[in-house]
């Protein structure tokens, strides 16, 4: 099922990694851009993460620290230090969770990367498919859209199948 607007993950498939690299840089200016990763599969089948970018990396850590600092000011200098530290730790935990979720998504989507080809995985909040479709057309890529919910379902399905199979080698 194709999603056309909202919180989407776009898979732009490229015949070669060079085209993917050029599109990677351009994608950061798309409306609703959140994060992206470019991956390539060598002709021997090995997958390589070429590059990643997350808009606002560090913002949760800094924001949490600032909020904790403001609350901690009520307790004086020691309270401010403890508040900043606690807030920064909470913000960092949120960022770490998002990075882990991104890794799960790349593992799930990696089967779609063709041998010798590359894929740009974009997380966008799209109001219209036009800008991303135009980017893909300029760089000779095909586009597949998944809603965030569809991707979450694929990740959960892969986890269930993996749990049912047990650890490798058993």
What are the defining features of this structure?
globular, alpha+beta, 5-stranded antiparallel beta sheet
Mean pLDDT: 73
- How many domains in all? 1
Largest sheet: 5 strands, antiparallel
Q: How much strand? A: 15-25%
Radius of gyration: 19 Å
Q: In a few lines, what is going on in this structure?
A:
This protein has five helices and five strands, in the order βαββααβαβα.
Question: Could you characterize what this model shows?
Answer:
The protein is α+β, with helices and mostly antiparallel strands and 170 residues long. The chain has one domain. Helix content is 51%, strand content 24%. The chain has 5 helices and 5 strands, in the order βαββααβαβα. The protein has a 5-stranded antiparallel beta sheet. A hairpin with a 5-residue loop joins strand 2 and strand 3. Helix 2 packs antiparallel against helix 3. The radius of gyration is 19 Å and the shape is globular. The chain starts with 5 loop residues before the first strand and ends in a 5-residue tail after the last helix. The mean pLDDT is 73.
Topology overview:
Blueprint: E1 6-14, H1 17-27, E2 33-41, E3 47-54, H2 59-72, H3 76-109, E4 118-126, H4 130-138, E5 142-147, H5 148-165
Antiparallel strand pairs: 1-4, 1-5, 2-3, 2-4
